[in-house]
User: Fold these one by one.
Assistant:
Number 1:
Amino acid sequence: MTTTTAAPTGIFITFEGIDGAGKSSHIGALADLWRAQGRSVTLTREPGGTPLAEQLRTLLLHDAMDPLSEALLMFAARRDHLLQVIEPALARGDVVLCDRFTDATFAYQGHGRGFDLGTLATLEQWVQTVPACATVRQPDLTLWFDVPPAVAAARLAGARDPDKFEALPTEFFARVAAGYAARLQADPGRFARINAQLPLPDVWAQVQQACQRSGWLA
Ligand code: TMP
């Protein structure tokens, strides 16, 4: 008699928000929570997550370049990361927790820099077409840490040497935040908006509730 085992079901969760939104500490806490439930977790980030993409990250976060080069390098890093890390992890059945993904490109390069959104949509289709997906690969859930740009700027002030993006003015981040709101509006079923202005325990409660609503966490 042969027994068949159902293919493992990976879960792809992304974390988004303007710089200073305070998402980082919650990513680690959520990883611990999933592990406590016996799930294997892949914790990763964009731009980055592979040796090649981490090299591109260094260029992207520190070198000046035109908006097209910036968008192309973001997607080049993403393609490598998707094929080398995210897809294999999902195929193993891991919970993939990824600090930023394509919504950041629409928000930062599209709405922030003013780069053409239609071109970004074409690149999204090319880069996120993978054999395991009938359509393009998208996160199962995106947690958007929404915070007013002035609050985020106050959090970042004096925290560390700002990189190329962190050094941009509050008006840039207001456009980025509007970009995230537009992405949510276009795909509300995928997004959970987290009020990241609240005290840390309240933000954490919202993060847990979003995963519980999806039926993945007890
Ligand atoms: P972080 O990992 O500290 O959040 O920094 C990554 C920076 O890169 C952040 O300022 C947002 C920016 N970024 C983009 O501009 N476009 C993208 O597609 C991604 C993934 C990040």
Number 2:
Amino acid sequence: MKRLWRDFVSRGLSTGRWLKTCRWGLCLAAVALPLQQASAEPIVIRFSHVVGPNTPKGIGAQRFKALVEQKLPGKVRVEIYGGGSRFNDEQAILALLFGEIELAAPSFSKFRAVSNELMIFDVPFLFKDRDALKRFQAGRSGQRLLDSMLDRGLKGLAYWDNGPRVIATKRPVKAPGDLRGLTFRIEPSAVIERQYRSLRVVPITMPFSRVRDAARSGLISGQENAWSNILSKGLHEFHPHFAEVGHTFLGYMLVTSTAFWDGLPSDVRGELEKILGQVTEEVNKLALEKHTQSRSKVLESGKAQVFTPTDAQRAAWEEALAPVREAFADRIGRQLLNDAVGN
Ligand code: LMR
């Protein structure tokens, strides 16, 4: 077990070994949870995330803690491990299965080892705007996706938003061809990797906690993220040119382990569901506000320049990235892709 964990942390496990590990994790959690609940101690929910406290997810985690401790006093305690202080997101998914944490909210890109379907959220220009994305998530397919990893021991609880991903570079970029030769930090997503390779960018996968150092040292000459993450890490100091082409949105699935969730007393689970419903609404409203505020603050710094394409320029980006959707259509599922386009 220890060796598997070390492997995962130091170099990443192959998907096959990872899934075997997940099953180990499920067995452990199944044994550990009833023991936890047999005692009179409060149930502890350890919530891991990788962003700053002043981002939609960071604020959402604190709000969740406050509401849980107000509505379930003495019954449930929440501990937040933010800013990647304990795990990066990929490690967090494994840690859920090992019973080392109970809650995480990784971006969809971080689920690569456990879901092909969630790659849908990284497909460029699939959702025509935020409303289309939200309709898809609230609809039949989106709700089904929350339960699509039950056989892996993971249960999706909600969708949390951040905002559109903006392309940030050290030199101005207007057309897709302008990216050629740059080196980008990307999230661990096969779709995003393909997107950048097709634009002749060298993609390097690394956890969010490494991006600032990688930008400062010059290891990377660009990356993409939501405005609140760019602001919170000060990434505009190193990559001050922004292209808002509107290709994808950064969003999260709030996720727990089935062993933990199913092992909760039903009244506690019911109250947690209500709280999550409330916090989800608040986070998603806040994400819209943070998007605008963070963008303004970055611009006010005087260091940033934003390129907003005309319809014709945007069409050129869409055309350049159109093959990415087809390349992943079979793995994601054509029906699911059609559902997304139909929103
Ligand atoms: C990233 O890795 O850039 C983001 O997914 C971080 C986050 O959680 O917003």
